[in-house]
Amino acid sequence: MSSPVSADRPAAQPPGRGSVEALIRQTRRLKGDVDAVRRDTRGDGADPEERWQRALYDLALRQLNDIDAHLAQLRDGPPPGPARPAPPPAAPDGSLLARVGSAEWNLLTDQATWSAELYRILGLDPAGPALTLDELPGLVLPEDRPKLTEMVTSCLVDAKPIDGEFRVVRPDGTVRTVHMMGEPVLGADGGTTSMWAVLRDVSELRHSQRTVSETRDSLHRHRRREQTERPVADESQETVLPPWHGSLRLPHQGPAALDLAAHRLPAATATLIGADWHDALELADGQTQLTVGGLTGQGVAAASGLAMLLGAVRGMAMAGTRPGRLLTLLNRLLGTAAQPALGSAVCCRYLPSTRTLLWARAGHPAPLLYRDGTGRPLDAPDGTPLGASSGTRYEECAVTLRPGDLLLLHTGALLPEHGGTATVDRLLGLAPRFGPAQTARDCVRTVVEEFGGPGREDDACVLAAKVTP
Fold first, then answer.
1. Would you say 52 and 208 are in contact if contact means Cβ atoms under 8 Å apart?
2. What spans are recorded as compositionally biased (Pro residues) (predicted)?
């Protein structure tokens, strides 16, 4: 339908077909590029930033699809309009053409002419008469009627163009958001003879925009919560972890004592993924308990769970509980906690009188033993993660150590974006550098130099124990 501002003024000529084709090609290339990036973005709802990004990509694609369809209309020109009352076939549901309709109201004859798409948008029977400007507000939500009335009045009285939105209620009760654009058609005497308008169903577009806004607000709240909780979680974690960094000499100074050192590598980002820990405890009988592990959860909740778990580990160790039994009881504890969580751990008990190491693990990398310039993981069944099954029993293994042996315990996040096998291979490759090391602290420093780079999304811990002569 033409849209002249004046009835005696010729309509503007449509753009050249070649230029419109070029715009269509550019739009479709851009759609393909945006869709390719969108497919690489996870949409599982696990991360607020990813949800916000996915919503923006969806909105961009929806708008590009609309632009593509608009340009195709410009290229093809207006379809021929058969005489009423037989309306042209409506466009398929969901297409842009089904969401864009047109109308003209003749003020001299009080007649209205609608396209078939406008009937579809408003949910009306195309065989019925088109609504007049006096009847149209009856479909509009009461709170939006003043807006429509003001737009129409300004157009008819002051010859101002229409550009605004309102919500309509279809006969089936569904509510749709409609964007209306139009102008008056002036007669030779300068008076308004009719009004034309294009009405577009923008319900899905507005829904996408609301989704972007909601996910953006959710992301902001998530980040504010992270900024608030991170210092509290870090302080809580530091409180329950051993009050030592670097070297530690336990009180027992007899033969075959352990030289210990540990280090915690913090995450590079403020994202709170979980709580990793390391612990060394001198027991009353001169034995030493070593544990390293991790707990799922985020923020203060993870730090609180870590405090409970580490307290239980120390209490059971002081009571003489051996590693296999200790992990079995710890697994039951996590399964019955008020906030159930999953965890992993390796638990070792060192008997200096015989240089024997008793150990067990639950879903955690095995300790690494370095001897005579080479390293290997200790052999033992994997053991299911803590909290996964309440009836799990964890096997215990024993190995005899020698003077000069180095035992390395670590969490799985040392190597960002790589699996446990890659981390173990890198650690075993450090064996030649561990050989000349005089202390456990030298060994830990080597590990930090190798794994302390940027990009780590989770905290990581490493604990080294060197058997003294």
1. no
2. 77-91
Q: Give tens-digit pLDDT for 74-114.
A: 787 765 544 443 444 444 444 444 478 889 999 989 899 99
Alpha-carbon span 106 to 289, nearest angstrom: 91
> What is the reported pLDDT for 40?
76
CA-to-CA distance for 101 and 85, rounded, in angstroms? 17
- Distance, in Å, from the CA atom of 358 to the CA atom of 238, rounded to the nearest integer, reads 27
Please give the model's pTM, rounded to 2 decimal places: 0.53
CA gyration radius for the chain? 36
Instruction: Kindly report the number of other CB atoms within 10 A of residue 13's CB atom.
Output: 6
Sheet holding 100-106, edge to edge: 111-114, 100-106, 192-201, 175-186, 162-169
Give residues with Cβ within 8 angstroms of 413, minimum separation 6: 276, 294, 456, 457, 458, 459, 460
The overall average pLDDT reported for the chain is 80
The pLDDT tens digits of the residues spanning 295-315 come to: 876 665 666 777 788 888 999
Q: How far lies 107's CA from each of 134, 143, 151, 194, 356, in Å?
A: 11, 26, 16, 5, 101
119, 125, 127, 130 alpha-carbon torsion, rounded to 10°: -50
d(CA 447, CA 429): 11
